[in-house]
Model the fold of this input.
Amino acid sequence: MKCKHILTAALFLSLLGGTATAHASTVPHSLLYEGRILDASRRPITTSLILRFSLWKDADWTAGDTASGSINIASPMYGGWSEVQAATPTTNGIVNVQLGSTTALPQIDFNQHKYLQVEIKSAAQPDAAFQLLDPTGDAGTDTVDRTSIGSVAYALNAETLQNRSPGTKSGSILLLGSDGKVEIARMGSGTNLPNFTINADQAETDTVLTFGNQAGPETLKFNNTAKRFELSKDLLVSGNIGTTGNISGSGTLKVNGAATLGGTVKLNGVAYTFPTADGTASGRFLATNGAGQLTWTQPFTFARKTNDETVTNSTALQNDNHLFFAVGANQTWIFEMHLVGNSSTSRDFRFAVVAPEDSTCLTSVSDANGSTGGSVISCGAEITKIAGTGEDTPYIVHGLVSTGSTPGTVQLQWAQNSSGSAESILRTNSFLSAERVQ
Ligand SMILES: [Ca+2]
Ligand SMILES: [Ca+2]
Done:
C-alpha cells in the first residue's frame, strides 16, 4: 500500500457530547474524528472520500493486517471493530467523522483498542484500494502507522471517578455482579440511617421483604388490598402482643399459659358474660339466665341438725333451728328431709314448710314404713297427726317450692300435734338436701 497523493496534516480525536454527571446510558457511545486531508503537494483535498476506520492493539501496520483489501479480522493485533463512512472535506480539507455511527463502537478496552487506523479512498473511485493515512507519511513502512486513541476516550472507560477506582476495598466504587445486581457479599450488614423505606416510590401495590434460608425464602408482605402485613410462616413473640383491633383466625387458639379475658366470651356463636367476682363459697356453679348472663349459683344445698331440738306443751309451729335453706326469686327447688323424731303416742307431730311470699309449695310427710303421713299443696299449710311412737322413729319430708319475685328462706316448722309435757324431739343429724331444678 502506498500513499502518493494523500497525507494527514492534522488529526484530532475527541469524545462526543455527554456530561460528567450524566448516567452512563446517556453518554453518546461514539468518538469524533477530525482530520485535514492534503495531497502530496500539501493542497487540501475537498472531493468526497470514503474512509475506513479500525481499532488495533498496536501502532504498526503490517501487510498481514489487510487481506485482499479488507481488514484482516484474523490479525492478532486487530481490535475487533471497523467501519466505513463517506465524508466530504471542507474547502480547507477538514473532515469530521463520528466514529461508531455506522458500526457501534465496542466497550472501550485499552488492551484491545489502543490505536485508530484510518484509510481513505476517493468516492469517485469506489473500487480502488484504501490508502493508509499514515501519521509518519511512510505508508506503513515504519512502526508508527496508526494514531493513538489517547486519553480522551477514557471518558468511555474511565479508570477513576472522583479519584476513586472500582474494586472491593474501602472507598472503592462498587461493582455490580454478573446479574446486574449488587452482590450480597458486598452489601453491608446494616445502615446507619434511622429510617429505611422499601418501595419508596410506591410504584408497586404490595411491598415484600424476603428472608432467604436453607429451607426456602420466607416473606413479610404488606398486602395493600387487605391493608395488612402478612407473614409466610409462624410468628413467635418473646414479649407481649397488643392490639387495638380484633384478633381473628381460622385455626386453633392455643394458650399454654394463663389467659385473661375481659367482657364477654363467645363460644359457638353464643356470647357469655361472666360474673365479675368469684362465687362466695366452694361448690358454686355458673348458671345462665338463657341470654348468656352467667351467675354463681348453688344448685345443691344441705343442712343438718347439730343438736337435739325439743318442744313441750305447744302445738304452735316453730322454726326448726337447723333445717332451712335460702332460695332466690323465680327459682324452683325440690327438697328431701330425713328426720329422726321421738314423740309420745299421745303428743305426735305436726309439720309445715314455709316459703317466701308469692311462692307455691307441695309438701308431704310420712314415716319410714308408711304407717302415718300427710300432704299439703300450699306453703305453710300444716300436716297434722304424724304419729309418734314413744321412741326414735324415722320420718321423711318431701316437697317442692317454686318462688315468685321474692327471694328468701324455705323453712321447716314443727310442733306437738297435741300439747303435753312429754318431750317431742327431733334428733341431732336429721338433715335436709335441696336441689335447684329451675
Ligand atoms: Ca509499519
Ligand atoms: Ca508509518
The first strand starts at residue 6 and ends at 15. The chain has a mean pLDDT of 87. Residues 6-156 form a domain with the Immunoglobulin-like fold (CATH 2.60.40).
